């Protein structure tokens, strides 16, 4: 399927799902109070007298009363009583719904819109930070691989052997430094792979409406989002580095040293917001790997949105969209639930559309070069 057809398919799915969601929204709207004029005056009078057609005793009493007064012509009275049953049932349903609305403290459209925009803002910030973090960590892992660093266990065993053979302060200090570095790395991996609620409740136990920054931090470092896609980007870089054009560039004397001290690569290049490695073979490897990484961007976005929803729900962060979704679902306000789910769907589709649009632009630029 061409990229243009994929964009049209996105538009078609948005229209179809939006029509379904709008249908569900309007069919699940709370019914208004039963109009008094839609029932005969006799029914209204009986209702004002607190007559209850659902009560078996009153039902039997009215039946005997109708047959006693009217005999065979009691059908008119019984018809009125049947309409009173419908009236009582409708009023009961309205009363229960109004009670649910009162308990749930139904939100207005403006309040939900503010929560939705706040959710989008948090999502965009977390996505931008993880996009930067994925590329930075991936390049860092790749550079260390190219520098020939041994595995942590091998490095520790080598340092320990040096200490046993020659227990000088230099060797001991090297062993302690490696042990501290790898222990810190272990703690870092432990945090990055931990669920958000484990990190949250180990740091603080009270969450309020001022937890936006803390929520952004959790969205970045928890649920293995950052480390999982950093490893994916690292393997994309690794696969690209083994291709023929890289060897050709090295043969043509393009810089291929990965030393960060004394070489052409600098830490500021690795940490820059907009990464550029001009004059180094890493520039071509990075550009091709980044193009392939864009294809997984949609997957990362969906994973990230799911993570943010879980964070807001699991941590009971009030005045946020996902917690409001949980509340309205609890109180059976299904029209608001449909509205919130529709908004989340549109956000996911907007990300997918934007990603495919970027890939289409990239492909067209490559075709013109």
Structure overview:
- With 369 residues, the chain is mainly alpha-helical.
- It has helices spanning 3-27, 41-48, 56-70, 75-104, 109-146, 152-165, 169-192, 196-203, 212-221, 225-241, 244-251, 267-271, 281-295, 297-314, 321-330, 334-368.
- The chain is elongated, with a radius of gyration of 33 Å.
In whole angstroms, how far apart are the ends? 23 Å
Query: Globular, elongated, flat, extended or rod-shaped: what is the shape?
Result: elongated
SSE series: HHHHHHHHHHHHHHHH
User: What is the percent of helical residues?
Assistant: over 70%
Sum this structure up briefly.
With 369 residues, the chain is mainly α. It has helices at 3-27, 41-48, 56-70, 75-104, 109-146, 152-165, 169-192, 196-203, 212-221, 225-241, 244-251, 267-271, 281-295, 297-314, 321-330, 334-368.
Topology:
Layout lengths: L2 H25 L13 H8 L7 H15 L4 H30 L4 H38 L5 H14 L3 H24 L3 H8 L8 H10 L3 H17 L2 H8 L15 H5 L9 H15 L1 H18 L6 H10 L3 H35 L1
Q: Which properties best describe this structure?
A:
369 residues, elongated, mainly alpha, single chain
